[in-house]
Write a structure and sequence with these properties.
It is a single chain. This protein has about 240 residues and is α+β, with helices and mostly antiparallel strands. The chain has two domains: about 10-120, Phosphorylase Kinase, domain 1 (2-Layer Sandwich), CATH 3.30.200; about 135-235, Transferase(Phosphotransferase), domain 1 (Orthogonal Bundle). Helices cover about 35% and strands about 20% of the residues. The chain contains six helices and nine strands; from the N terminus they run βββαααββαββββαα. The protein has helices spanning about 55-60, 65-75, 80-100, 140-160, 195-215, 220-235, and strands at about 10-15, 20-30, 35-45, 110-115, 115-120, 160-165, 170-175, 180, 190. Strands 1-2-3-5-4 form a five-stranded antiparallel β-sheet. Strands 6-9 form a two-stranded antiparallel sheet. A hairpin with a 4-residue loop joins strand 2 and strand 3. The longest helix has 24 residues, at about 80-100. The relative contact order is 0.12. The structure holds adenosine-5'-triphosphate (ATP) and magnesium ion. Magnesium ion binds near residues 18, 170, 171 and 183.
């Protein structure tokens, strides 16, 4: 990772516009050295009509100290929306840092600046982003391998007491073999959030359905996986 003060970032364009954030491809280089690295810049939106659908439920128990800020967020003033977007960016930055350190397959979180999050770019050196799992039709062996990687990754989250909270084949990238979990601002505390077990169950059901529909053998996978994850998270079978 390039941390030199002389580093210059160049925006190479939009990778993907999403509901809540735009992801840009960025090149960070040190002039006259030839050193360069690609980054993904996830810029959270603050516009009214793109307000986060995830604000309810996920954020239960998230504390905000200043009442002026609480009021601004509740009434969705421009200032309040800026604060909310910043909260989501920070939540994702922190979750990625924790998971990266725990060895979970997530993009390395490089830097946080307000509502912009800089991440390790998952893709080829020439700037082609890794496909989402949803775009792929893996052969049986590859499918089995991806399932094993997925369950391992979910175990790592559960061990930390977390569920992804918005898990689907759209939030998994396949980097020419390795599976990478993305889109984690809403990571859910399975124990501390009263709706935690529900989010965990929904994640497991949705992603197991995808694998089952693509031919993953073994019905009952969802129940078995959910039992494992509940145990890892310490909320029983
Ligand atoms: N670190 C990354 N490296 C490469 N591509 C990425 C990275 N992060 C995100 N992307 C691309 O940007 C897309 C959107 O990212 P993400 O899912 O985090 O945002 P989103 O706002 O939820 O978008 P969507 O509504 O499309 O799910 C991803 O599906 C992926 O194609
Ligand atoms: Mg997404």
């Amino acid at each position: 990772m390039i941390t030199a003060h002389a580093a210059v970032d160049t925006d190479l364009g939009v990778l993907k516009t999403g509901k809540e954030a735009d992801v840009h491809l960025l090149e960070r280089g040190v002039p006259d050295t030839g050193e360069q690295v690609l980054l993904a810049a996830r810029r959270y939106r603050t516009a009214e009509h793109r307000m986060f659908h995830r604000d309810a439920g996920y954020t239960e128990g998230r504390r905000v100290r200043h009442s002026r800020e609480t009021r601004a967020m509740a009434s969705r003033t421009a200032f309040g929306r800026q604060l909310l977007a910043g909260q989501w960016a920070r939540a994702e930055f922190e979750a990625l840092g924790t998971l990266w350190a725990a060895g979970a397959p997530v993009p390395y979180p490089v830097q946080l600046h307000g509502t912009e999050l800089l991440l390790e770019f998952v893709g080829t050196p020439d700037g082609a982003a890794a496909p989402r799992l949803a775009q792929l039709r893996p052969e049986p062996d590859a499918l089995r391998g991806l399932w094993e990687q997925l369950t391992e990754a979910l175990r790592a989250l559960a061990r930390r007491g977390w569920a992804h909270g918005d898990l689907s084949a759209y939030n998994l990238l396949v980097d020419d073999g390795p599976l990478v979990l993305i889109d984690l601002p809403q990571v859910v505390d399975v124990v501390g959030n009263p709706q935690g077990p529900e989010f965990l169950g929904r994640d497991v059901l949705r992603i197991t359905e995808w694998f089952t529909a693509r031919g993953l053998p073994g019905s009952g996978s969802a129940e078995a996986l959910l039992g494992d994850l509940r145990q890892e998270a310490g909320i029983g079978p």
